[in-house]
Design a protein that fits this description.
Blueprint lengths: L2 H21 L3 H14 L4 H30 L4 H13 L1 H25 L3
């Protein structure tokens, strides 16, 4: 038995025990949580409003980025400051677009499932 078997095996077993404890939820607790979520957002209005708000914020981000790129291209304003801000906005493009896609995609997924089940 190697030293990594002792430490690795015990760590893996501990993680497995913790994960199993969290995964194995009794049915009453799961039903209570589902009921609580349904009570908080019975018609999906909160989910739809979040999608609208996230879409609006994403549009503002794109508009701001485009405006700064136009200013930089035509040399309007303090070019060095605009270049600095534009480079930071461009670095954030993938994370912001990824989060936007996940949030709105999840909302559309829930809408699609509800439509297939005839709930919406």
């Amino acid at each position: 038995m190697a030293w990594y078997d002792i430490f690795g095996g015990s760590i893996a077993k501990s993680i497995e025990n913790i994960a199993t404890e969290f995964i194995e939820t009794d049915m009453e607790s799961a039903e209570a949580k589902a009921l609580m979520v349904k009570t908080l957002d019975p018609n999906g209005l909160m989910r739809k409003q979040i999608s609208k708000d996230v879409t609006l914020m994403y549009k503002i981000y794109l508009f701001t980025s485009l405006t700064l790129l136009i200013f930089q291209f035509f040399g309007i304003g303090n070019i060095e400051q605009i270049k600095d801000v534009t480079s930071k906005l461009i670095e954030l493009f993938l994370p912001i677009t990824g989060m936007f896609s996940m949030i709105v995609g999840a909302s559309f997924g829930v809408n699609a499932i509800n439509t297939m089940k005839g709930k919406d």
